[in-house]
Write a structure and sequence with these properties.
This protein has helices at about 25-35, 45-50, 55-65, 75-80, 85-100, 105-110, 135-140, 145-165, 190-195, 200-215, 230-245, 255-260, 285-295, 380-385, 390-405, 420-430, 450-460, 475-480, 485-500, 515-530, 550-555, 585-600, 625-635, and strands at about 10, 40-45, 220-225, 250-255, 275-280, 305-310, 310-315, 360-365, 365, 390, 410-415, 440-445, 460-470, 500-510, 535-540, 560, 575-580. With about 625 residues, it is an alpha/beta fold. α10 packs across α11. Bound molecules: cobalamin.
Length: about 625
């Protein structure tokens, strides 16, 4: 008599994001169910925040504040204590409002007479209406009461998160938790020490939620998904508790952080917490693990999995092929509390809000990247290198299934770079089937995104697009093998903007050989792109060299030398480098971010870009109407 198939529970550990579930558990649960395996899922990231910010949770936080000697309490903690009754009385209503369950409360929240206001509300003081009118009218107009209230409620939650950080756990954030304990940490020691420490209020709350989840699902196998370094500590706290209370449950770890940083894992202590750690796409390794734990496959025949044998870490991979993308099944959000996600409004920018506001379904248009050449990217890793597309038919089938299941029609396509050909076919199939959705995603600003294609994508529901302009410099874009030019990016982004699609540009600074002049000129290009209405939002990332990227693999080709890494037994990803160009990117970065923040609020676009720099910089060499000329060339 064969043993029943295992019951599998997939968990998103704290912290990833609050407005919609990070999609990995939905993907894995959908895949396992398509193979007849009993699979369920839980989002303990959202559950933790809802518990800590509930009236009961805030009372526990308040007790932690009161336990601190008064002289040690900061003004924030004093004002929290003074306003505690108001916080306790309002938090449940605010969460319900941010979940969309009590929209009429918006009027009271927006009045700013209802909620206590802490230091985070100072951010509102920068807005002054020249006529002395409503300083926020530029953002919300006369009727935008829902969004105005959402912003006020978000500042209220940010104040409470600051209190939690000061009184309970400085490592806590809404989108990452104790990130530094894992991010590029060559040794497991920092994590081992943190996990050996006695649990604080956050840990105890997470334990309670884990116990309830285990009770609810009675799993045989627990899958912990860690997409980012900011989810590792909590994942191991969950594993620690499950291993102690339910040693029969098998525990596996996987996800973006693992796939990028744990490829040279050798510290056996990690397996005091988990039984197996898999690399890259999870479908195939998972089937192998489940068969192994079901006694149907030997450990020697696992797929891309780290296990511990005789106290030593072993990497096993018999090389079975991955499940084709067209056969990984349709993600399911079944089991996740879709009505409980919190739509926050932090940054007052129409594009930027998409990352924190709205319960978006998440899907992938194609596995991997069709370009996979950019010098700063992990082009050698499977999530980039293995390009595997599905037909538009399959994609729209998945979309229709997800809409039927969730009742919601918003989609964030999570591709590294969605291929224009697939997006064109997808748009045509959506229109042919008259499937109405709203969607946004990431692309390369390549020339095949013609004005006609952008119009068609808009007609198929595309509302926003993000893409990499990186350093706006043709020399550096060439060195990066990005395959685009500044003029081309201007024309493509304008085509999207003209089609009514919001455009966000990923910007970079600090790339090898980048000079001060390159930086000033790049900012001038960005200024002109905002001025011409090509882009509405952007984010300046400091270039980080990773060991898997072409820069990390062939530093000499980029004129830099890598700093030696200490011996690695745990995580390896970022690597420091020396660039003889000697540009002070730290100082320049401050100016770039300040300018961009203002440009995104429509401020300072007429100013000479040198005015943003606190240090002396040369005048730009970019002609005043360079972007305008590039656009007229298009016409
Ligand atoms: C979309 C995206 C974003 C979006 C949205 C993020 C979100 N919260 O949803 C934005 C732009 C906001 C973002 C931000 C960041 N991102 Co990002 N992001 C991505 C991207 C491109 C897709 C993520 C996704 O949805 N993938 C689809 C899911 C289904 O894939 P998956 O999680 O990998 O799951 C598969 C496998 O890993 C495996 N698996 C997953 N879990 C498990 C568990 C078990 C037990 C098993 C067996 C298998 C398994 O099976 C799954 C199905 O095949 C990935 C790269 C990628 N292509 O995956 C980077 C990526 C995850 N991001 C990364 C990083 C670093 C970040 C930031 C921390 C950057 C920063 N410094 O701010 C922030 C974090 C912000 C946050 N907390 O949200 C890194 C993480 C790697 C690392 N070093 O840890 C990645 C891998 C890219 C990279 N190499 O740099 N990101």
């Amino acid at each position: 008599m064969t043993a029943p198939l295992p019951r599998v529970l997939s968990v998103i550990p704290p912290m990833t994001q609050l407005n919609t579930p990070y999609p990995s558990t939905a993907y894995l649960t959908g895949f396992l169910r398509s193979r007849g395996i009993a699979a369920t899922q839980e989002d303990l990231a959202l559950a933790l925040v809802l518990a800590l910010f509930s009236p009961k949770g805030l009372t526990e936080v308040h007790q932690a504040v009161l336990a601190m000697p008064a002289p040690e309490r900061s003004p924030l903690l004093h004002s929290f204590d003074a306003d505690f009754v108001r916080y306790h009385a309002t938090t449940e209503r605010v969460l319900a409002f941010l979940q969309g369950r009590d929209p009429t409360l918006a009027h009271r929240i927006a009045s700013r007479q209802y909620l206590p206001e802490g230091p985070r509300f100072a951010s509102l003081d920068v807005y002054i209406d020249p006529e002395g009118g409503d300083p926020l009218a530029w953002a919300f107009g006369a009727l935008g009461v829902q969004d105005r209230a959402r912003h006020v409620a978000t500042l209220y939650l940010n104040d409470l998160a600051d209190v939690l950080r000061e009184a309970v756990d400085p490592r806590f954030e809404f989108v990452r938790y104790a990130e530094s304990l894992a991010m590029s940490q060559p040794s497991f020691e920092p994590l081992a020490q943190a996990l050996a420490a006695s649990p604080n209020l956050v840990d105890r709350t997470l334990q309670r939620l884990t116990a309830q989840a285990i009770q609810r699902h009675q799993p045989d196998v627990l899958l912990l998904s860690v997409p980012f370094p900011g989810a590792v500590y909590a994942a191991l706290r969950i594993a620690q508790w499950v291993r102690a209370q339910h040693p029969q449950i098998r525990i596996a770890l996987g996800g973006g952080f693992v796939n990028t940083e744990l490829r040279e894992l050798s510290d056996p202590r990690v397996f005091d917490f988990v039984d197996a750690i898999t690399l890259d796409a999870g479908e195939r390794p998972l089937l192998a693990l489940l068969e192994h734990w079901h006694g149907k496959r030997s450990a020697g025949r696992l797929v891309r999995s780290f296990i511990r044998q005789d106290g030593v870490v072993r990497y096993v991979d018999i090389g079975e092929a991955d499940i084709p993308f067209a056969e990984v099944g349709t993600p399911t959000w079944d089991g996740l509390p879709l009505q409980s996600y919190l739509s926050l409004l932090d940054m007052l920018n129409p594009m930027h809000r998409l990352w924190s506001d709205g319960r978006w379904n998440k899907l992938t248009v194609a596995h991997g990247c069709y370009w996979k050449k950019c010098s700063f990217c992990d082009v050698g890793l499977d999530y980039i290198s293995r390009y595997d597309a599905a037909t538009a038919d399959t994609l729209v089938d998945r979309i229709e299934t997800v809409v039927r299941e969730t009742g919601q029609t918003g989609f964030h396509f999570v591709d590294e770079a969605a291929p224009p050909k697939s997006l064109k076919a997808l748009a045509a199939e959506l229109q042919r089937r008259q499937v109405d959705i709203s969607w946004w995603g990431n692309i390369r600003f390549e020339k095949s995104f013609t004005p006609e294609l952008c119009q068609q994508l808009a007609a198929s529901g595309c509302i926003a697009i993000s893409g990499g302009l990186e350093v706006a410099s043709d020399r550096l874009l060439q060195l990066m093998k990005k395959g685009v030019s500044v003029d081309q990016v201007a024309r493509v982004t304008k085509a999207f903007a003209d089609a009514g699609i919001l455009v966000h540009a990923y910007l970079m600074y600090g790339f090898p050989t980048q000079t001060v002049q390159d930086t000033v000129d790049a900012l001038e290009y960005v200024r002109q792109l905002f001025e011409a209405g090509c882009i509405q939002s952007g984010f300046f990332h400091r270039f980080t060299c990773t060991v898997h990227s072409p820069v990390g693999q062939h530093p000499a080709d980029y004129g830099v030398t890598l700093q030696p890494l200490p011996p690695v037994s745990f995580a390896k990803n970022d690597v420091a480098f020396h660039d003889p160009t000697g540009t002070d990117h730290d100082a320049l970065g401050v100016a770039l971010k300040k300018a961009l923040y203002n440009y995104m609020h429509g401020i300072g676009l007429e100013q000479d870009v040198r005015s943003w720099f606190d240090l002396r910089v040369p005048r730009t060499t970019v002609a005043k109407h360079r972007i305008a000329r590039a656009l007229s060339a298009r016409d």
